[in-house]
Task: structure prediction
Amino acid sequence: MAKLSVELQRYFFEEERQSEIKLVEVLTLAGERIFGFLFVILSLPSALPIPAPGYSIPFGILMFLLAIQLIAGAKGPWLPEKMMHGSMKLESAQKIVKAGIPWLKRIEAITRPRMTYVCTTLTGRVLIGIAIALMSISMMIPIPGTNTLPAMGIFVTAFGLQEDDGFISLGGLAICLMAGVLSTSIIIAVIWGGSSLLDVIKTWLKSVMSY
Result:
């Protein structure tokens, strides 16, 4: 089977396409590695050093649904018909793929089947599914700093999953752990900061009303 970077290059740049593409059409590239493929494709826009805005929440929702199915032991993914036939402008997709192919090639250069039990056993797939589900939730939170690193964790973990490279997936899980700690810290800081500001406002209002 051809490398993902080669298949994406061919599909988006060497073959004639309509002005808009649908997710269901891109899935023809997946073959048997469907779960890993979907996670890689859906996390790519947000995982790039210069992420494409507007995709974190909808793609986060999709990946969360897929992660739950992976945890449940599903052999193949199910997504709502509306999502499967949702469209994206070809030009937008090409920009994302063009930016992502160099990163794909870098990770492909070090990827090979090893520690396959991480990616093929029920325990390993459940662990991967839980990590991706949590990272997907983080991606859906509209707070700066809670999107890119979780998406990178999903991207690396999923790339290992689709290539049966448990070593790469474990590296991705490590990134997910770091992303979880960072996202939690950011959320706590925002909530704490918001609470502190609210307390200040309440104190000020009480002082004003006391006069």
